[in-house]
Fold:
Amino acid sequence: MRIGIVNDSPTAAEALRRAVTGSSEHRVAWIARDGIHAVRLCVDLPPDLVLMDLALPELDGVEATRRIMQLAPCPILVVTAAPQDNVNQVFRALGAGALDVTATPVLLGQGGEAALLAKIRTIGRLVGKTKTPTGTASAGPLAAAVNHLVAIGASTGGPVALAKVLSRWRPPPDTAAVVVQHIDAAFADQLVKWLGDQLPMPVRAIVAGDAPEGGVVQLARTNDHLRLGANLRFHYDQEPREAVYRPSIDVFFHSVARHWEGSATGVLLTGMGRDGAEGLLAMRRAGHATLAQDEASSAVYGMPKAAAELGAAQKILHLEGIGQALLGRMPGPPQS
Structure:
């Protein structure tokens, strides 16, 4: 099931995310920090289930539940701290359309996670979303649900360029957006937060073992190189140690060209040097769409220029044009 999480507490939201992704049956569709954002995400990116807190800024969980059931009806499970102490709100939420209630697992440890997952499985059976185990190994529902991968590399001037491109294009539920930005690991989490404040979709740092997630922007967060493995899960690798830029865009693009069997688009943005050019060429040779930023809109026309010289980019576009091209997924015929 694709599950939306609504909770303004970073600790509680992370506990819910881990509980959901710890099960091979489910994935996180998005995380909302307030009720207004939750309603908007339910309309724009409908999930299979919403985990709704009650105490929320802007719009509380009861009213958010009511509006979701009016505008974009979907199953809602109330997940809140000490529900026994908030009986009035719990019943109001149930009256507004929520199906059930349970306590936030961060307060109960592993027992709380088990109780939450049991509730989710029950709701899944009710709405026909529970899958029957097959006993065969696979890349899991995360990878299976994503049909298109947008791989983006950026360096000098990258954060602003990323914000401009991604503000014009939101990855749909079946599309993952994965970003490799040259930035020290000490600042990676701040970049995730900053981008999250700029964009109308979830932005998350990639943890080893994660898979591409539809409707989400995922960022490499260490000084090691991000790779997509044959199992369609992400991992970090110190090799090649001699790579000047860490994490290396080339390393990630090459792994996408090697292992991603669905459709994909490679995007190389502003930056000094040549990192990403060879990898973008590998993606193009693998049959994927490729784009590079033009000189006029680049803070430093190094990496995109190198890609242009190699013939790696099917189209060289201004930032606004890149956003428009992503809306259509394929950039069209190669530029002459």
